[in-house]
Structure formats: C-alpha cells, structure tokens
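SAMPLE LOG
Freezer: B-3
Tube label: C17
Construct: single chain, 106 aa
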Amino acid sequence: MAGKWEPFDLNGSVFRPLAKLLYVEEPDFGCEGVPEDGVVYGSIVLEDKNGQRTVKIEEQQLFASRLDDGMWIGKLAGKTVLLDKRKQHIYQPNEAEQSWLQNISL
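STRUCTURE (predicted):
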C-alpha cells in the first residue's frame, strides 16, 4: 500500500491520485420493484487516504456517469479527472460526475 497515493507520470504529466472507486453498487429493489416516490440511490465504495467508505449517488447521476469499478479520481494538470487504468483512458468528468464529485470530500 506504500506509494498507492503517490503522484505518478501519466503521458508526460503528473497524476495525483485522490481516491479509487473499488466498486459501484446499482440500486437493487428485490421483489418490491422500483419505489414510486422519493429519490432512488445507488452507492459507490471508494478508498482514499483516510480509508474505505461508501458514498450514495442518485440513480440518475449513476446511470448518466461513466463511473466503473477500479477507476481512479485524481488531479491532472490541476483539473479533477477520472482514470481508467485498464482501458488506459482519462475522462474529463461529465455533468453527472461533476455533480457527484462536488458532494463528496476528497
């Protein structure tokens, strides 16, 4: 775990990890079905320097986002980005992701 939160080179720029998305949990309604009223939430289990935690995310934000298991949230050239190391792809947060990121403290 040493070095997990250390900045590293990414295509000639320095990526500063803030959190890792361990897994995304979509809403599960079981046999009751989708509730007719109220906001529906999924959750994201993430790890940062302070440890592991679960953060709620509105269903609409979750389905509009590209958040996926194993993604990293970090800073690249001073901007918050999402990094999918498996696909070797950097994402600028879309509107849904920006909204969710504003509601969590990293």
